[in-house]
Design a protein that fits this description.
single chain; alpha+beta; two-stranded antiparallel sheet
Length: about 150
């Protein structure tokens, strides 16, 4: 699904048009999120990184392999830079990526948050991951710069 020539062509155009600040995000993610790393998920279990490059992030959670296009990660940073974002907001924004009941995977929400934190672009995950207390992070204006 993500490996079609049209997708790759669109990705190349996307990367070429990225402002320098957005290219920094991709570089920071790919240098800090490496194949083989195993992360503890805030809701339990682990995520094992299988792929981390300019096009795609993939990980295994349980017995399932999940995919998160880098373009979605960059769009999320651009959209919520300097703000807090919850897992519920991500599901509403891109249900095809973040909502298990609508074609996506709910685990992509915490994976996005953990990825951005590892790359220095988000706070640690807060919240309980339940109705009334969704997981959330603050997305920094610049790496490592909490708004305080």
């Amino acid at each position: 699904m993500f490996h079609s020539s049209r997708f790759f062509s669109n990705l190349c155009v996307f990367l070429l048009r990225l402002p320098k600040s957005m290219k920094k995000i991709v570089e920071s993610v790919t240098s800090n999120v490496r194949t083989g790393q195993v992360w503890l998920n805030p809701g339990g279990g682990t995520s094992k990184i299988k792929r981390s490059d300019e096009e795609m992030l993939s990980y295994v959670r349980g017995h399932s392999r999940m995919y998160l296009p880098m373009s979605i990660l960059v769009e999320a940073v651009a959209r919520w830079r300097g703000k807090q974002v919850t897992s519920a907001e991500l599901r509403r924004w891109r249900p095809d990526v973040f909502d298990s009941s609508r074609g996506g995977h709910s685990s992509n929400t915490t994976f996005l948050f953990m990825t951005l934190h590892k790359a220095g672009y988000a706070s640690e995950i807060q919240g309980a991951g339940k109705a009334g207390s969704p997981f959330w992070v603050e997305i920094f204006e610049e790496p490592g710069t909490a708004s305080g």
